[in-house]
Amino acid sequence: MRVLVGLSLALGLSLVLAQGLLAKALETVATERADRQAFVSLRALEDLVQRAGGKGDSVRAVVSAWQQQLPAGSAVRVIAFSGIQLEASTFPEDKDDRAAPRRLSREEKPLYDRGQRLRAAVETNREEGTARKLEVEAEALPNGGRLLSAPVEVDGSVVGLVELATPPLKAPLVPSKGALAMWLLLPLALCAGASFVVRKQGLLVIASVVALVAGVGGYASYSLGMLDAQVRETQTLVAGQLRAMSERAQAVMAERQLAAEPALQPGNWDADQFRRPLGLVTPAGAVNEAAVAARVAELRSGASRALGGLGALALAVLLFIGMGGLARTVETVVEHRTAYAYIAPAMVGMVVLVFFPFFYGITLSFTDSNLYNTGQSITDIWVGLRNYVEILGDFSIAKRAQDGSIVFNYLNFYYTLFFTVVWTVTNVTIGVTVGLVLALILNVQGLALRPVYRVLLILPWAMPNYITALIWKGMFHQQFGVVNHVIRMFGGQGLAWYDTPVSSFLTVLATNGWLSFPFMMVVSLGALTSIPAELYEAARVDGASRWQQFTAITLPALKPALVPAIILSVVWTFNQFNVIFLVTEGEPSNSTEILVTQAYKYAFQRYRYGYAAAYSTVIFGILLLYSVVQNRVSRATEAA
Amino acid sequence: MKNLRLMIAAMALCALGLLSTPASAQPKELVLWHGYRAEEKAALEKVLKQFNDANKGIVVKPLAVPYDAYADKISATVPRGKGPDLFIFAQDRLGGWIEAGNTVEPIDFYLDDAVRKRFIPTTMEAMTYRGTVYGLPLNYKVVTLIYNKKLVPVPPKTSGELVTMAKKLTDKKAGRFGLAYSYGDFYYHSALMNGFGGGVFGPGTTPTLNSPQNVKSVELMMKWAEKDGILPAEPSSALITSLFNEGKAAMVFSGPWFLGEIAKSVDYGLAPLPTLDEAGGKPMRPWMTVEGVYISAPSQNKDAAFEVAKFLTDSAAAKVLALEGRQSPANQGVYSDPKIAGDAQLKAFRDQVEVAVPMPNVPEMTMVWSPATSAMNGILKKASTPKAALDVAQKAVAKDVAGLRKK
Questions:
Q1: Does domain B144-285+368-405 have CATH number 3.90.380.10?
Q2: Which residue segment(s) compose the domain that A50 sits in?
Q3: pLDDT (0 to 100) of residue B22
Q4: Distance between CA B9 and CA B29 in Å, rounded?
Q5: Does residue A272 sit in the same domain as residue A145?
Q6: Mean pLDDT across the stretch B261-269?
Q7: What is the DSSP letter of B75?
Q8: Cβ separation A607–B363 shorter than 8 A
Q9: Is B131's CB within 8 Å of A606's CB?
Q10: Which pLDDT tens digit goes with each residue over A234-245?
């Protein structure tokens, strides 16, 4: 019974999803078909408009001649950049006082902007020798038609834009419900039949798996066959369109006496969005079988992968239900329902706010994502481990100058790592020392005004740390900063604090020291007050000195409180973004950058998101390693 | 029953509200962000008030954003439609915003020849990215020659004059120098670099850091520092300020930001940077930063926003911003106004801007700074020859740029 329910659920789920995918794919194919046919027409027109010089009466004549052979409900227009003109238009709204030629009105700004966008795209791609920006655009119209735009080039520069609006598209082919029902019910019936014959649970599961594979496989072959036929039909239609447009263009050229040289190149009309010929149709207007076969094979492998994925999902569902996994899970959830209800909101929060960004970041680190290609899909910009190799494989940390001094490469990962470690160690040392000393002072018996001191000393911690950081940055200002002011009061020369790596480092050290001691002080103070006074009394009776008391009683008693605080503080300091980012900004020339600020700069100043993600993942790795080692060590100390 | 009645009443109120909105014709409210403080802010607000008084249908509300977070705030808010309708910023981030998309609205469409001709041509160039105009230039900042009138009665016209004059005024033992500027800073070095006809990018944004012209310009700088010895060692900006204020530096290359730091006792003058004998008498051409008024792409009131931008950049507004805000307007008509023509500071920057080069606004520019600064440091510390150091920088920048473009 369980097996049957599992099979019907798994099969139903996968087939409904497959049906959805197929419908989507058919729609894409239909849109592509319409777009390609329309583009052939548009590019032929573009060619004629170019020959007609891009503007003037001859363009209007070409456009009206072209309109005659377009299907009813289509319209074309030509826009010239010089004078922001609507040169020619067969759109129904451009009549009477709005008839071409005229200047574009303010509501038509998007039109002009689109033209300029295409011009910039053509120029950019040409300059860079890449295909990075779309050179033609296609969008859906509210009435269900398509609006296509292509640039007009005269003498090598883009001077305008041609646009073609198609009539509403025919509804795309819908996958039949019959096939769905057949591939759903047939395996179910088979499996049900089997259940009467076979009594053993294990065999039944195997039978159901076979039924599932048969069902999904059967539907897959149905949908692949359908897609295949559609794609091939598209090629035939486009080829026909190409022949027709080519003839038509020749006729218009002869009629309007346009320059016949260079000869028309209809092969270029059927092109991708970067105006690179697709090659699926020959210039003569025949279907290029080899290219089409390759295209179909590519499509098939993509579709099979999607369907294979669906099948795997379905199999997982089937086995989960069939083997009794679901029953057990439901049982557990029902039994501990209060507990699950309580953690559910936190779990959702964690998934959305922590796990998703985390895994997204890791995925991004394997890509070459940057400012220019954010629109592309992840598979297109996948580079594998290249970012990691670039980061970890670069060992040019420093080189020797002529005069023997060492010049560091501040952008190198290992330099930054070294700086980060130095920064962490010095800061934690300062924090612990100052915090402990102050705690010891505050812990003196009978100290007057102790609450006042305590509040004053905790204040640096209570202030938002970016405010503190900005104040310290101001204090180290060369001209107006209070530090230089004091130096000058004693007759010294003020220092340009942010001009050398060492002095720059001192400024952040001071800032972070100021920020970190209160935490250590509070922790130590709490632990200090819990040490029984009798211990010291006994030590005094035994004649121990103050120092001996400190090392033998105070420090060991503080250890359980201090060790976790230090572990925490190391992680905080390692990732102390605010202080470095606000106080030194990495000056001079990235020498005081820690790993996190460097990663930020890679992402938002050098616009290399993938590289920055890899950088962050490396940082995560380092901290993970640290906490694992730290755990081992502290467990060992606890055991001792 | 009571609930129902309340609901009906509420619905009626809503309906009334809906009806009355179109009737009352609320003035359009536009928000403008800027990073100005003190007198600049006051001047801008004054101009905006004039606009609000003159245009009853539109109200512009300025908002001063602290400069440190300004650029990031625009990058984060504007593409999501949470930003202002207009914002004022320098051109250096323009390319990045355009490539990121949905941030800056192209305004070519609105521009007629009268508006285009209103501005100093190079400032308009700074607002243009890949052939499309994205903002109206408001003001510019440029490096020029600032000299102590007591020490330099007549400012030098050529680099030859500059060196002879500076040599006479230099006395290293007494800590006196003829010339002082942050020659290790690539931004300041740009004047020499562009003067020789060099630059950081060739056509198609291919980096050209190690071009022969750039090498020559660095060699000339090294000659000034080493052989002629007219420059102080390790020129931090604090050092330059204190030298100039103590009368120990006769001439300084710096921009308007330096003027505020000059002590009251120093009588200073401004003059264009000298021409370069070494480059066949061509002028030194510093980089300039141009602040523009941009319309944000998701704004609902682009037409009105453009009117504001146009108003802010016309002659009357430029005059207020120049005289009260102490900015150098990009509007060229305003310089024929007698009050502005008589202002030595504004006139000097206007003369200098004739030969200035807008700092590249392409996003690739952010990749230049670190390698270029490292190269300059290496050269000054004699760690490598100018050619070798620039070769290294070129390689680094080319790698970063190629990293962006890789398919």
A1: no
A2: 27-165
A3: 46
A4: 30
A5: no
A6: 88
A7: H
A8: yes
A9: no
A10: 888 888 888 888
